[in-house]
Amino acid sequence: MSTHNHHHHDHDHDYGHGHDHDHDNRYSDMQARVKALETVLTEKGLIDPMAIDAIVDTYETKIGPRNGARVVAKAWSDPDFAAWLRTDATAAIASLGYTGRQGEHMRAVFNTPDTHNLVVCTLCSCYPWAVLGLPPVWYKAPAYRSRAVIDPRGVLAEFGLILPETKKIRVWDSTAELRYLVIPERPEGTEGLGEEALADLVSRDAMIGTAIAGPRP
Question: Is 28 a catalytic residue?
Answer without folding.
Answer: no
